[in-house]
From TrEMBL:
Keywords: ATP-binding, Host-virus interaction, Kinase, Magnesium, Nucleotide-binding, Purine salvage, Transferase. It catalyses: adenosine + ATP = AMP + ADP + H(+). Its EC number is 2.7.1.20. One of its GO terms (biological process) is purine nucleobase metabolic process. This is Adenosine kinase. Residues 27-336 form the Carbohydrate kinase PfkB domain.
């Protein structure tokens, strides 16, 4: 099996998901588009309260990277196989999150900010599709000083694989760079996600700076097309875009870059070495779909659970699709007690 303690480390924005099925009027009122992810602006601040008041709300520990790490941990069923770093507030939500991750078997090392509340993410669900509006709060306060502390850097040294969602580029690009350069120097595997159209568009410089270090790039079709447009590639063909991303210059020649793009119920696109392979997704009857919140995160978690065991790409994709399929049949990025992945 070859799984060791702390083999996979994630860094990102730990957020408490405030999830509710809403209506189109609510989406219109706050200018929210389905299948998107944005950072909250001032106009969005009242929506959290309004959701809690007018809709049936669930509180679920979330944050893209944290979701993926928890799913990988669940798939691996090996205590402490995964670790996670991020920033929370010293408050009730933060305590909940800590409890939730410990129960999930993840070794969390949060930086706790005294003066800022734990970050939240409104998950607006309509017709099974989700839209995310993140109020980062404490998650935005992560500093690389925390990462450099010996006890925390030890987690980096212990890990052989790293996963960081693109969302963390808005918070601590220097922390990402530290880990990316370390991974390249020590021949460890460094993976990231495009995460959202706004990251590709407005955090382009930070994204481009780290891209040479990324061995696996994950994303969905919307993010891939935004990346293509921002870079003037003039193609909307996901296969072509995946190849172009995989051919982006690399800082280290140890691993060839592999691009993995999910497309909802359409096949997963994997590009490496100038070639593309597609893998069909197990279709799910519409009546079984609860919500797509965490679907992409779960895919990465499933994928990484096999990658750290050095399984072939097709197995990684199969595990990603399995985990994703489980999560979309439940509210938020949650899962049953044990996986039944063969």
């Amino acid at each position: 099996m070859g799984v060791s303690e702390g083999i996979l480390l994630g860094m990102g924005n730990p957020l408490l998901d405030i999830s509710a099925v809403v209506d189109q009027d609510f989406l219109n009122k706050y200018d929210i588009k389905l299948n998107n992810a944005i950072l909250a602006e001032e106009k969005h601040f009242p929506m959290y309260e309004e959701m809690a008041k007018n809709y049936k709300v669930e509180f679920i520990a979330g944050g893209a990277t944290q979701n993926s790490i928890k799913v990988a941990q669940w798939m691996l069923q090996f205590p402490g196989a995964t670790s996670y770093i991020g920033c929370i507030g010293k408050d009730k939500f933060g305590e909940e999150m800590k409890k939730n991750c410990k129960l999930a078997g993840v070794n969390v090392r949060y930086y706790e900010d005294e003066s800022t509340p734990t970050g939240t993410c409104a998950v607006c669900v309509l017709g099974g599709e989700r839209s995310l509006v993140a109020n980062l709060s404490a998650a935005n306060c992560y500093k690389s000083d925390h990462l450099r502390k010996q006890a925390n850097w030890a987690l980096v040294e212990k890990a052989k694989y790293f996963y960081i969602a693109g969302f963390f580029l808005t918070v601590s690009p220097d922390s990402i760079q530290l880990v990316a350069e370390y991974a390249a120097a020590t021949n460890k595997v460094f993976t990231m996600n495009l995460s959202a159209p706004f990251i590709c568009e407005f955090f382009r410089d930070a994204q481009e700076k780290v891209l040479p270090y990324v061995d696996f790039v994950f994303g969905n079709e919307t993010e891939a097309r935004t990346f293509s447009r921002v870079h003037g590639w003039e193609t909307k063909n996901v296969k072509e875009i995946a190849i172009k991303i995989s051919q982006w210059p690399k800082a280290s020649g140890t691993y060839k870059r592999i691009t993995v793009i999910t497309q909802g119920e359409d096949p997963v696109v994997v590009a490496e070495d100038g070639n593309v392979r597609t893998f069909p997704v197990t279709p799910l009857p519409k009546e079984k779909l609860v919500d797509t919140n965490g679907a992409g995160d779960a895919f990465v978690g499933g994928f990484m659970s096999q990658l750290v065991q050095k399984k072939p790409i097709e197995e990684c994709v199969r595990a990603g699709c399995y985990a994703s399929n489980v999560v979309i049949q439940r509210s938020g990025c949650t899962y049953p007690e044990k996986p039944d992945f063969e």
